[in-house]
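User: These chains co-purify. Model them together.
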Amino acid sequence: MNQNITRQLAPLFYPRSVALVGISSTATNVGYMFLQSLLDAGFPKVYPVNPKGGELLGVKVYPSIKDIPGEVDLAILTVPREAVPEIARECAQKRTKGIVLYASGFSEMGPEGRALEEEIVRIAREGGTRVIGPNCVGTYNPSAKLIPQFILPKESGPVGVISHSGFLFYYLLMSVAATGLRPSKGVSCGSDSDLTCVDFLEYLGQDPETKIIVAYLEGIRDGHRLLQVAREISLSKPIIVMKGGHTDAGIKASASHTGTLAVSTAVWRALCSQTGIISVDSFEQMMDALLALNYLPRPKGRRVGIITTPGGLAVTGTDACSQLGLEIPQFTAETRKQLAGVVEHLGTSVNNPVDLGLVGALAPEYYVKEAIRIVAKDPNIDMLLTAFTGPPGDDDARDRKVADILLSEIAEGGKPTVICGATPQGWPRGELRFLADSNVPVYPEPRRAAYALAKLTEYSEFLRSVQP
Amino acid sequence: MNQNITRQLAPLFYPRSVALVGISSTATNVGYMFLQSLLDAGFPKVYPVNPKGGELLGVKVYPSIKDIPGEVDLAILTVPREAVPEIARECAQKRTKGIVLYASGFSEMGPEGRALEEEIVRIAREGGTRVIGPNCVGTYNPSAKLIPQFILPKESGPVGVISHSGFLFYYLLMSVAATGLRPSKGVSCGSDSDLTCVDFLEYLGQDPETKIIVAYLEGIRDGHRLLQVAREISLSKPIIVMKGGHTDAGIKASASHTGTLAVSTAVWRALCSQTGIISVDSFEQMMDALLALNYLPRPKGRRVGIITTPGGLAVTGTDACSQLGLEIPQFTAETRKQLAGVVEHLGTSVNNPVDLGLVGALAPEYYVKEAIRIVAKDPNIDMLLTAFTGPPGDDDARDRKVADILLSEIAEGGKPTVICGATPQGWPRGELRFLADSNVPVYPEPRRAAYALAKLTEYSEFLRSVQP
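Assistant: Joint model of the two components:
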């Protein structure tokens, strides 16, 4: 473990003070928005910097970095790119720990921009100052009240977030929060001129608050180091990555976006299989996989027991699992015998998928519960997909009670269990809401539930392959 | 066109009277729920039937079908399967136009059940009575106030719905309504013992209220006729199908669900390419395709112009389009020249994908509008994917105005245009809501927007292949 990384990056995630260089009082000025948000979050020490001096939102404005009396851990530069080298020099002289380069127009614009970028990094590093960006919004850490935008979650959770894209950085943080989870820390790292996504991955791998990592990555500057770092982190923390720019057309688009090198689909796939990185094709898939990987134990194999209330979901759930490479094996004779004692005779099935019929939807606290109890004990079954649907109830106390009964059975069974709600918007069963609030992954349709199990299985198989 | 179908099925979708056979006053009795819902919807003539007679919810109960004074167009039978043959005989004698068999336990249970099913159909057909089911909930038609469940939409729209699964029938109707569209008519057809999904498809094909059809199908009894019927309907109405039971495991599950014959993935694919049926793998994909196929004109080719506000969405949108078989061609020199007059110099791109930078998100009424205007005119471009994102506004009047400006530009351009919001739950831009309300397909992330365009293209290519 490279403890140097934690030492160097900690001040960028836990800065005792932040300078906002390039701030002005216009409402659309990015520095001004940072200032508002940091003050609102209660961040203790902010130094606005503008040659004109004066005061902004009640905070004294310093003419330059060197005029700031105390130490500056992090300087966020929202000045035009031409002004950056001089300010980087001042930061280096002040031994600022890190600078965030918000501006774009560097390596993604060609050789001249790349030369400017390299010069800035050289100047900064002379003072031991590390550079995040350019073309980024930098670090976010709710534990340190380092909240660069109003809209971002202010409570801390287990999910580390890395993004090469600034906009998608905010989007990922908000999407994580929309699942009910919260980010632990995050970084928008832009063009990776000095500190790269691999450095941040390594930092989050060592961060005790971070239990799982999601990342939107475009080009990778150091594939070999990513391989080593990701492989080690994956042993204890799942890493879920949406890779932008791996089709030919996407690679071209990425070059003009971040200016970093892209990798082809084939290279990316090989890298994922060696590192245990869970690769997804959309942000929705990322959040679906996140829920399962965060909340569920690891399955011992790829065999799914499917339990459904009325029929069509048994078929579509089975199709989806099968298409995604999971197995739907026959239950043992003992399981079938026990299920036969629970389900009604007509219009149901005690095979896998179990079809509990309409009664299952009407009285899940008995039928679904019993089916979970029986199927979870079957030695042929590694995990459960339960499609738990039907008309919505309107009795919160009953729904909470039903959810508690199911929760206790799921916990008792000890096997990874996802719930599929088949719930159109505005038509949620109350039990599902309570289950989701109690850390059970609930998906709106069978394919997404099956996808989450497939990704959970992929990670579990990686772990078995390296820790036999 | 087989007008016989419309003549025979019209009384099942526009019944002047409905008999509910097997009703009782217990709250979980299905007939009782149907009665409540039909009365609530204002359906004019309902005859509850129970040997005990009496009255239910203020409506006279008849001891049997033959005791009903007037004609009965549709009889919904919620009696146990053993009681069905005798009641079917009474329906036939009364020249009832159709019966819905709610019960299960027929052909899906093996030879004995199949024989019983065949006997019922034979008895019914002797009186000219057609059978829907068994194992189904029958017809739904808001125009005729034929609403079998409280929760279903009461207003009529353009979307015909067919489902082999009763639960997924309700789910599909609700999901259609959740998109903002409404169903025209629907049928849960169960095991296709007499009337099959192909009959209902043909009926909806001829129904003037129905402009587009979505279906959840399991086994197909008459593939040859489906081929002919679907191919003809596809010329004027898109048919979107989620096919359950085409993997080996799914086929087994389907057999015990509806008892119909399943088809393999390969056969299904061949059938779709010959008929123009748009096949989807999930209900979410079905609704995403529905919006695009319902609202958008047909693209002339598969070339997408991508317009985005800040960068990461340009890359992921391009990847998604490319993976799904769409092309992202170079713009003409004229287009690039015009775009250069609109976008800012730094951190943007006038190539395809266009990256408008942060200003695009801050002032879409100028930047996004201008980009749509310019790109829609490019002869290299057949359709547009616009990722229109950024922080949410809180000014409805402004949002409505921005939406109107964009709507007018999209209409002027005349090319199919989808919007990608990249909008986590609870973080919608107001403009997007107004656009969605104005019949522009809005998707929450690039992959789903690209998928919708890919399905639109697939349908358009089918049309060109048969109408060169």
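The mean pLDDT of chain B is 92.
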